[in-house]
């Protein structure tokens, strides 16, 4: 049996005018700022007007550690949203926007798949409503103003060797990772080393996604540290007087984007911070707005639960006062087999023993999520090659961990296939057994917070950090930053810092290479292992196969 590609399915979508989608949530047409016929921003005035409403139920979708076999976290998020609407709940999906770099690189798009997609798929994976361009522009304005400040006399006495604010572009471009700037003589300033990160790694992106409103946004932008003086005191964005103009550039980008699923259900697609270097969740303003106007909000967190869910709980929920009612943990039979040692080429053949051998990774994630006081439902994202015996093996394993696994066929059947999952999620959420609490308190020492995450989530024996890093953490505590949460930047492929180690390893340690203070976003990044803030393109980038066909339609964007 042959299946249509995601883009073919998306092209056939029977989209409704965005005003009709807004009406499902009770958003008046005058509060939708349309970008064409099928997408719109929701006005700040409307968002302010619903703040007194009671919150709906919050469902987090997360996953096991990603494998080349694919897990389908966004697909399950969209499918569950459609399934909840199918059984009579007013449900909204909240996901992140896609970055151009990975779209043209190896990862591809980020709008779901099969019959569980958000549309317009091409727009969402390309320029969309210009949010990422606005973030790039605001970030670049600050970069320009820092070098301009130094050029015109350096009133703040910035040490040009200690400018920590890098530049950004929304593209995978390894050639820009480390560069020299201000070359070419006196007229061009003072030569120094610099570099580029990808836009989604910008602190501006993290701030946009954690800010409650424009006033909060402007304050957080002002709080960003951009450089240090010779006496090692920090120079803030507000010292450069850039935060006001940056906020102006971000004014529209702060407003959530409303689109629709293939089944014409509402979806907010807004923000997109890196899931390893930042917190990997869609914007607080989109999630909190959706909660005020929906019975159920289904959102996701990047990569596996050891990164995305941990940061959703310890950073996003802590900052925004949120508490999930249920967590859906996505797994596939294929990924279990891969964790069990089967090569990708052999995943189509039945292998129940390999499924059983790969399940400990799933079990570790179930235990971790439960440690936050939130109930778990495992969604087995169905692939056509799965056999009944393999699915039964996963269900039996999950039952031994005090949870239930539900087979969901949303990719193939849309909401009809996700209805059993939706019913189970409602049953669990309505039972009211969630008793959410972050993993650590605000007042715990910074290094102790790192150890808590490493030992309780990764099951590591220790965190290894040299004296320089420990001294830096102590200095930040003395400067009043000790109450900030920790954002662990590590590989998404393993509980360890080694991407090749699958399963549920123990007896390992977590080496911290460097620590970075994101004073505006409000967290401290601990960089573990080799984490790139500017990816490179693969040997055969997806961009090579992207083109317009004779009918003017986009081909190759999946």
Automatic annotation (TrEMBL):
Record GO biological process: tetrahydrofolate interconversion
One annotated GO molecular function: ATP binding
Gene3D superfamilies listed in its UniProt record: Domain 2, N(10)-formyltetrahydrofolate synthetase, Formyltetrahydrofolate synthetase, domain 3, P-loop containing nucleotide triphosphate hydrolases
Any Pfam family the entry gives: FTHFS
InterPro entries xrefs: Formate_THF_ligase, Formate_THF_ligase_CS, P-loop_NTPase
Keywords: ATP-binding, Ligase, Nucleotide-binding, One-carbon metabolism
Record keyword ATP-binding present: yes
EC number: 6.3.4.3
Annotated pathway: One-carbon metabolism; tetrahydrofolate interconversion
Catalytic activity from the UniProt record: (6S)-5,6,7,8-tetrahydrofolate + formate + ATP = (6R)-10-formyltetrahydrofolate + ADP + phosphate
Residues annotated as binding ATP: 67-74
Main enzyme class: ligase
Family: Belongs to the formate--tetrahydrofolate ligase family.
Protein's UniProt name: Formate--tetrahydrofolate ligase
Organism from which the protein derives: Roseovarius lutimaris
Gene behind the chain: fhs
């Amino acid at each position: 049996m042959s299946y249509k590609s995601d883009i073919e399915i998306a092209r056939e979508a029977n989209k409704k005018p965005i005003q009709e989608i807004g009406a499902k949530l009770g958003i008046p047409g005058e509060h939708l700022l349309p970008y064409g016929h099928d997408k719109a921003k929701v006005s700040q005035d409307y968002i302010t007007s619903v703040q007194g409403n009671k919150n709906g139920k919050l469902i987090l979708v997360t996953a096991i550690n990603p494998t080349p076999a694919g897990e389908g976290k966004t697909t399950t998020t969209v499918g569950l949203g459609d399934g909840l609407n199918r059984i009579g709940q007013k449900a909204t999906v909240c996901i992140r926007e896609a970055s151009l770099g990975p779209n043209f690189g190896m990862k591809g798009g980020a709008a779901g798949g099969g019959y569980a997609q958000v549309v317009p798929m091409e727009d969402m994976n390309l320029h969309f409503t210009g949010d990422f361009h606005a973030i790039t522009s605001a970030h670049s304005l600050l970069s320009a103003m820092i070098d301009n400040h130094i050029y015109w006399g350096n009133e703040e006495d910035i040490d040009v060797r200690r400018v920590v604010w890098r530049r950004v572009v929304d593209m995978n471009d390894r050639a820009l990772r480390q560069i020299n700037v201000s070359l070419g003589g006196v007229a061009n300033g003072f030569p120094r080393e610099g570099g580029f990160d990808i836009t989604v790694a910008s602190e501006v992106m993290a701030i946009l996604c954690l800010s409650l409103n424009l006033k909060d946004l402007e304050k957080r932008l002002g709080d960003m540290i951009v450089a240090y003086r010779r006496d090692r005191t920090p120079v803030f964005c507000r010292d450069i007087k850039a935060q006001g103009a940056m906020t102006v550039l971000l004014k529209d980008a702060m407003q959530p984007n409303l689109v629709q699923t293939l089944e014409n259900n509402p979806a907010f697609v807004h923000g997109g911070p890196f899931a390893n270097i930042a917190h990997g969740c869609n914007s607080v303003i989109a999630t909190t707005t959706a909660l005020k106007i929906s019975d159920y909000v289904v959102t996701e967190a990047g990569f596996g639960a050891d990164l995305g869910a941990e940061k959703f709980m310890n950073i996003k929920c802590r900052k925004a006062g949120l508490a999930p009612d249920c967590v859906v943990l996505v797994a596939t039979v294929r990924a279990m087999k891969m964790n069990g040692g089967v090569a990708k080429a052999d995943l189509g053949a039945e292998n129940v023993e390999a499924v059983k051998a790969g399940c400990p990774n799933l079990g570790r994630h179930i235990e971790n999520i439960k440690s936050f006081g939130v109930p778990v439902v495992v969604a087995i994202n169905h692939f056509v090659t799965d056999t009944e015996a393999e699915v039964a093996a996963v269900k039996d394993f999950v039952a031994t961990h005090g949870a239930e696994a539900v087979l969901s066929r949303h990719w193939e059947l849309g909401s009809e296939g996700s209805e059993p999952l939706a019913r189970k999620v409602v049953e669990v959420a309505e039972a009211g057994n969630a008793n959410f609490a972050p993993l650590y308190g605000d007042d715990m020492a910074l290094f102790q917070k790192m150890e808590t995450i490493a030992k309780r989530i990764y099951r590591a024996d220790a965190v290894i950090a040299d004296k320089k890093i420990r001294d830096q953490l102590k200095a930040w505590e003395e400067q009043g930053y000790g109450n900030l949460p920790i954002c662990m930047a590590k590989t998404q492929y393993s509980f360890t810092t080694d991407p090749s180690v699958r399963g549920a390893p123990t007896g390992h340690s977590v080496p911290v290479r460097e620590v970075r203070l994101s004073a505006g976003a409000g967290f401290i990044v601990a960089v573990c292992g080799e984490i790139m803030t500017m990816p490179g393109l693969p040997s055969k980038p997806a961009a090579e196969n992207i083109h317009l066909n004779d009918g003017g339609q986009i081909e190759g964007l999946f």
